[in-house]
Specification:
By secondary structure, this protein is α/β, with parallel strands linked by helices. It has one domain: Lambda Exonuclease, Chain A (Alpha-Beta Complex), CATH 3.90.320. The structure holds iron/sulfur cluster.
């Protein structure tokens, strides 16, 4: 059998280009020191994981989890399907101040802005009954705060699709977003969600790792 990966390499090259743009957008605005700044997706993650990635230069330029590859392909496909339907790709930024006067500039990059909605696209293998996931809802509601628009969260899964709609009045408030930013930059919450450790490449060397219980291992 021939060993010729040229088509897959072309696909991977394209995925690499797209992933590189995303990573540049995320890490290009990250500041762990005042003036604090980061993207919405960054402040919703484990502080230590992000700090390790930057410190040890372990930012993955190409995804190695297949679900992430599928997510990128889903994102790309939907944008192409809708390309003549008038959507925009926008970057928002807004400053939030916590009750001690610490300032945080938070950048928001929703997948699409269409009409009066910010739209976020997700691929997941989670069962439909577990959706939506809390950090995805926060993500959309933070974009809603920044844009003043309604929100739509679309899931694509092996078992079907789901959409969740949010009215602009349901956006997180400035105070709530300042609280999330504070928990990341000042409190350094690690992990933000226990499940993050199961997917984290530092889990065997991280003193803060939350290990699975025996029951979960089974
Ligand atoms: S193992 Fe858990 S706490 Fe440690 S860096 Fe990874 S996600 Fe964060």
């Amino acid at each position: 059998m021939r060993n010729d990966l040229k088509i897959w390499r072309l696909i991977m090259d394209r995925i690499f280009e797209m992933e590189k743009d995303i990573i540049d957008n995320i890490y290009g605005v990250l500041s762990f020191k005042p003036p604090y700044s980061a993207t919405v997706t960054t402040v919703l993650r484990c502080y230590t994981k992000i700090e390790y990635d930057v410190r040890f230069r372990r930012i993955e330029m190409i995804p190695t989890r297949f679900s992430t590859v599928l997510g990128i392909i889903f994102d790309y496909t939907v944008k192409n399907l809708l390309k003549d339907k008038g959507f925009e790709e926008k970057r928002y930024s807004k400053k939030y101040v916590d009750d001690e006067g610490n300032e945080y500039v938070i950048y928001g990059d929703p997948d699409l802005v269409m009409g009066d909605e910010v739209v976020e696209l997700k691929y997941t293998s989670m069962p439909l009954e577990n959706l939506p996931l809390e950090h995805h809802v926060y993500q959309v509601k933070m974009y809603m705060n920044q844009s003043g628009l309604n929100g739509r969260l679309i899931y694509f899964t092996p078992n079907g699709v789901r959409e969740f709609l949010y009215d602009r009045e349901e956006a997180l408030t400035d105070e709530e977003i300042a609280g999330i930013a504070r928990s990341f930059f000042i409190d350094k919450v690690s992990p933000r969600y226990d499940w993050e450790c199961q997917y984290c490449h530092y889990r065997s060397i991280c003193p803060l790792a939350v290990l699975k219980t025996e029951e979960e291992e089974k």
